C-alpha cells in the first residue's frame, strides 16, 4: 500500500522543498519518481547515508531512515539531525528534518521544521528544535524532534487533511471532526464501521501508529541480511567480522518488527559455487557476537571437514587462519519467526543445558550437521527401539506418548544395552533345522535350538522364552503390525531380543 | 581413561558410576546404545548427548565433545594414531573429563573385559531374563599390572550392579577411575 515497510521505531525524515512540487505531506505515499529529477536527489541520499546506513527514498525530495541506531552512535537524535542537515546544506539544498515515532509523524515533523525555519508555523511545544539544531540552521534548516510517545499530541491540533485522504477529510470536516486529535478521540471500531479501511488507516495515523498493523509473520526473506565479498574473502576472519555487523542488522530488523527468530540459517557461498549452509538455534537469545561465533564454527567445521576428506592426516584444532578458497557471499536468514516476548528461556531451562555443553554441542553440529548431535527422550512404547525418541540438540521434541503409562506387552526389565537402529535379520531353527514359526494362536512350531545372526555362524540356544505376541495399532491398517517377541540365550552367554514378523526373524536388541 | 573391552552394559554402569550427579555424559560412535538401559543404569537422559556418527576426523570431534561434557563414552571408529591419542589425552587432562572407551586403547591404565556371562531367570520356553552374573577381568599398567577378576551381577535382579563376590561393581568402577 505504501511501499515503505519497516520504520516502526524512531524514524528520521528528510524533506527537501526543492523537489517538493506538490508540497503536501499526502505526497509521501505516492510512488517514487524516476528519471533525471530523481537522480539529482541521489547526492542528498548519499549524504544521508554517511550517517544513516539504511536510507529509504520515499520519492525524490523525501527520504527517511531508521533513527535509533545512528542516533545512539552519534550521541543523540538532535546531533544526528544536525549532522544530516549540515551535510545536505553543504550540497546547496534546503531541507527540513523531523525525528519521531513512525514514518508519518516524522514526515509531518520534517514539514514543520521547514515551516519553522522559515518563521512560519509555531512548533509543537514539547518538540522544539533540538539543542544543537537550535534556531534556523544553514540555509534555513532546523530539525523538529518529537519525543517518544508524543506523536498523538504532536499531531492532534492539525487539520485532518494532513492524513492524506482528501475525500475523507472533507467528509470529516463537514461532520465536525476538524482536527487529527478529534479523529483520534473516536473509537477505532466506530471509525472503521463508518468510514471503512480508509477511515481506519487515517485513524491509526492520527493516533501516531503505523498505517497498518504489523503482520505477525512477515515472509522470512524480507528479514534476511547478506554481505557480498568482492574480491572473495580469503580469510575466515574477514567473513566473521562481516557476520557480526550482519547479525546486528538482522537483530535490529527483527526488533523493529517485534519479532524473535527461533533459528537462523547461515549461508556461505564460496567462489567456486559451493554453498555451506547450516541452521543455528537462536531462540531470540543470541547476541551479535554469538551469531558471529556460530559463523566461525560453521567455517571451522567446514574447513576441518574438507581437510578430513582431503587426507586423514589433518589434525584436530582447526583455526580460522586457513584459506577458504574465497567466500563471495554471507547471508543470514532468520527462520521460524515468532513474536518477541522478552527474553525467552532455553528449551530445557538454563540450569540443565549450560553454556559449556551448548557450545560443545553446537560446535559438533557445525562439524557434522544439525542431526548429528542428539538428545534422547524416553517415551512410551513396547519394543526397546520404540521407547526412545532422538531429538537433534536444540530442537523441541515432538509430542509423544508418555513413558509412565502401562504398555501391555512391553518388554520387562532389564533393558538391553544394545538396541540395533536397524533390526538385524536372523534365522532361528529348531532341532530339525527347520525355521521356527509362530502360529496365529501364539504357538511355536518347534523349540528354538540354533540362532544365526546375519548369516553368521550358528550358535546353540541354551535358554529361551516367548513368544510374546504384540498386535499394535490394529485399528490403523497402514501402521498395524503383528509380531511376537522372544528372549534367547546362546551358548556363549549372549542374550538376544528377537522378533518374528511375517515369518521372518529379526534381532532387535542384545543384552550385554 | 578406561578401556572397557567392548560395548555393553558394563560401559553404561561404569559411566553411571563415574558421572557424578549433575554431570553431562556423551555417547559417541555407538548408534546402537540402548537409552532405556542407560537410564536404568543410572545415567540421566536429560544430561546425555548422543553423537552416533563422528565423521571422518573423529579425534577432533571427540576433543570438541570433551570441551563440553564431563564423560565421553566412545567407541572409536578406527584405531587412533599416536598423535590423536596424545591430543585426546591432553584434552582429558585439561578438562578433567573421563573418557570411557568401548574397545581397546593402547596405553590405557585399566582395561576391563567381560569373560563370562551367566543369565538367570530364563528357562526353556518359560521365565524371563532377570539377572546376569558376569566375570570381569581388570588389568592394565601400574597397580593394575596383575590381572584381577571379579564376579558381578550386571544387571542384578533389581536392575542395579551388585557384587557377585567380594568387591562391588561400584568399587571396581571407582577404583578404576581413580587409577585412570
SSE layout:
The complex is a heterodimer of chains A (512) and B (180).
Chain A: E1 10-15, H1 36-49, E2 55-59, E3 62-66, H2 68-74, H3 77-90, E4 96-101, H4 103-117, E5 143-145, H5 151-155, H6 166-174, H7 180-185, H8 188-206, E6 225-235, H9 236-256, E7 259-270, E8 275-281, H10 288-310, E9 323-339, H11 355-368, E10 374-378, E11 388-392, E12 418-429, E13 450-453, E14 459-472, E15 481-490, E16 495-501, E17 504-511
Parallel strand pairs in A: 4-5
Antiparallel strand pairs in A: 1-3, 1-4, 2-3, 6-9, 7-8, 7-9, 10-11, 12-13, 12-17, 13-14, 14-15, 15-16, 16-17
Helix pairs in contact in A: 2-3, 9-10, 10-11
Chain B: E1 2-3, H1 9-18, E2 25-28, H2 35-41, E3 48-51, H3 58-68, E4 71-74, H4 82-95, E5 98-101, E6 110-122, E7 127-140, E8 148-153, E9 162-163, H5 169-179
Parallel strand pairs in B: 1-5, 1-6, 2-3, 2-4, 4-5
Antiparallel strand pairs in B: 6-7, 7-8, 8-9
Q: What would your notes on this structure say?
A:
The complex is a heterodimer of chains A (512) and B (180). In chain A, 29% of the residues lie in helices and 27% in strands. With 512 residues, chain A is α+β, with helices and mostly antiparallel strands. In chain A, the strands form four sheets. Chain A has a six-stranded antiparallel beta barrel. In chain A, strands 2-3-1-4-5 form a five-stranded mixed sheet. A four-stranded antiparallel sheet of chain A has the order 6-9-7-8, with helices on one face. Chain B has helices at 9-18, 35-41, 58-68, 82-95, 169-179; strands at 2-3, 25-28, 48-51, 71-74, 98-101, 110-122, 127-140, 148-153, 162-163. Chain B is globular. In chain B, 53% of the residues are buried. By secondary structure, chain B is α/β, with parallel strands linked by helices. In chain B, helix 1 (9-18) packs across helix 5. Chain B has two domains: 2-101, P-loop containing nucleotide triphosphate hydrolases (Rossmann fold, 3-Layer(aba) Sandwich); 111-179. The longest helix of chain B is centred in the middle third of the chain and has 14 residues, at 82-95. Mean pLDDT of chain B is 82; it is low at 165-169. In chain B, 29% of the residues lie in helices and 29% in strands. At the A-B interface, helix 10, helix 11, strand 10, strand 12 and strand 14 of A face helix 1, helix 2, strand 3, helix 3 and helix 4 of B.
Amino acid at each position: 500500500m505504501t511501499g515503505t515497510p519497516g520504520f516502526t521505531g524512531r524514524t528520521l525524515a528528510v524533506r527537501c522543498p526543492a523537489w517538493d512540487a506538490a508540497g503536501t505531506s499526502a505526497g509521501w505515499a505516492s510512488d517514487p519518481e524516476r528519471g533525471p529529477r530523481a537522480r539529482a536527489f541521489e547526492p542528498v541520499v548519499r549524504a544521508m547515508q554517511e550517517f544513516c546506513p539504511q536510507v529509504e527514498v520515499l520519492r525524490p525530495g523525501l527520504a527517511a531512515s531508521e533513527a535509533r541506531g545512528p542516533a545512539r552512535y552519534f550521541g543523540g537524535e538532535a546531533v544526528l539531525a544536525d549532522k544530516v542537515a549540515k551535510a545536505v546544506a553543504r550540497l546547496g539544498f534546503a531541507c527540513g528534518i523531523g525525528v519521531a515515532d513512525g514514518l508519518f509523524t516524522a514526515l509531518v515533523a520534517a514539514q514543520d521544521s521547514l515551516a519553522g525555519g522559515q518563521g512560519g508555523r509555531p512548533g509543537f511545544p514539547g518538540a522544539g528544535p533540538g539543542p544543537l539544531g537550535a534556531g534556523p540552521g544553514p540555509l534555513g534548516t532546523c530539525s523538529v524532534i518529537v519525543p517518544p510517545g508524543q506523536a498523538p499530541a504532536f499531531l492532534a491540533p492539525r487539520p485532518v487533511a494532513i492524513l492524506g485522504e482528501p475525500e475523507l477529510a472533507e467528509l470529516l470536516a463537514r461532520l465536525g471532526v476538524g482536527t487529527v486529535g478529534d479523529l483520534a478521540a473516536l473509537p477505532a471500531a466506530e471509525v472503521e464501521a463508518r468510514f471503512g479501511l480508509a477511515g481506519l488507516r487515517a485513524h491509526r495515523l492520527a493516533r501516531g501508529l503505523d498505517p497498518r498493523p504489523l503482520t505477525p509473520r512477515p515472509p522470512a526473506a524480507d528479514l534476511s541480511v547478506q554481505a557480498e565479498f568482492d574480491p572473495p574473502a580469503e580469510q575466515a576472519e574477514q567473513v566473521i567480522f562481516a557476520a557480526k555487523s550482519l547479525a546486528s542488522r538482522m537483530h535490529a530488523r527483527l526488533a523493529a518488527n517485534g519479532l524473535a527468530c527461533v533459528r537462523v540459517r547461515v549461508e556461505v557461498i564460496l567462489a567456486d559455487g559451493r554453498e555451506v549452509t547450516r541452521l543455528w538455534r537462536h531462540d531470540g537469545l543470541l547476541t551479535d557476537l554469538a551469531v558471529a561465533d556460530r559463523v566461525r564454527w560453521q567455517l571451522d567445521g567446514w574447513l576441518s571437514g574438507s581437510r578430513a576428506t582431503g587426507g586423514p592426516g589433518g589434525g584436530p584444532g582447526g583455526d580460522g587462519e586457513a584459506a577458504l578458497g574465497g567466500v563471495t557471499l554471507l547471508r543470514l536468514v532468520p527462520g521460524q519467526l515468532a513474536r518477541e516476548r522478552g527474553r525467552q528461556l532455553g528449551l530445557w531451562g538454563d540450569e540443565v543445558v549450560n553454556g559449556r555443553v551448548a557450545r560443545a554441542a553446537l560446535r559438533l553440529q557445525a562439524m557434522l550437521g544439525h542431526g548429528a548431535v542428539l538428545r534422547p527422550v524416553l517415551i512410551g512404547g513396547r519394543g526397546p527401539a520404540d521407547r526412545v525418541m532422538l531429538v537433534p540438540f536444540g530442537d523441541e521434541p515432538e509430542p509423544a506418548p508418555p513413558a509412565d503409562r502401562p504398555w501391555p506387552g512391553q518388554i520387562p526389565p532389564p533393558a538391553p544395552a544394545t538396541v540395533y537402529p536397524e533390526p538385524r535379520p536372523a534365522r532361528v531353527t529348531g532341532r530339525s533345522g527347520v525355521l521356527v514359526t509362530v502360529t496365529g494362536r501364539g504357538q511355536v512350531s518347534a523349540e528354538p535350538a540354533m540362532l544365526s545372526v546375519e548369516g553368521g555362524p550358528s550358535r546353540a540356544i541354551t535358554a529361551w522364552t516367548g513368544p510374546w505376541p504384540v498386535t499394535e495399532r490394529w485399528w490403523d491398517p497402514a501402521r498395524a503390525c503383528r509380531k511376537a517377541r522372544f528372549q534367547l540365550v546362546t551358548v556363549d552367554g549372549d542374550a538376544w531380543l528377537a522378533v518374528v514378523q511375517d515369518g521372518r526373524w529379526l534381532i532387535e536388541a542384545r543384552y550385554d | 581413561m578406561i578401556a572397557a573391552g567392548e560395548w555393553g552394559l558394563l560401559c553404561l554402569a561404569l559411566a553411571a558410576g563415574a558421572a557424578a550427579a549433575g554431570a553431562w555424559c556423551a555417547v559417541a560412535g555407538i548408534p546402537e546404545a540402548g537409552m532405556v538401559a542407560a537410564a536404568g543404569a543410572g545415567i540421566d537422559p536429560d544430561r546425555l548427548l548422543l553423537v552416533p556418527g563422528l565423521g571422518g576426523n573423529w579425534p577432533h570431534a571427540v576433543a570438541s565433545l570433551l570441551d563440553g561434557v564431563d564423560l565421553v563414552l566412545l567407541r572409536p571408529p578406527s584405531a587412533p594414531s599416536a598423535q590423536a591419542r596424545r591430543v585426546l589425552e591432553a584434552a582429558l587432562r585439561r578438562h578433567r573429563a573421563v573418557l570411557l572407551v568401548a574397545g581397546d586403547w593402547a596405553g590405557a591404565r585399566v582395561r576391563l573385559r567381560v569373560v563370562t556371562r551367566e543369565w538367570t531367570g530364563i528357562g526353556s520356553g518359560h521365565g524371563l531374563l532377570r539377572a546376569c552374573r558376569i566375570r570381569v577381568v581388570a588389568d592394565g599398567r601400574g597397580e593394575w599390572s596383575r590381572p584381577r577378576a571379579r564376579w558381578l551381577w550386571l544387571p542384578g535382579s533389581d536392575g542395579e550392579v551388585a557384587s557377585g563376590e567380594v568387591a562391588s561393581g561400584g568399587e571396581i568402577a571407582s577404583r578404576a577411575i581413580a587409577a585412570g
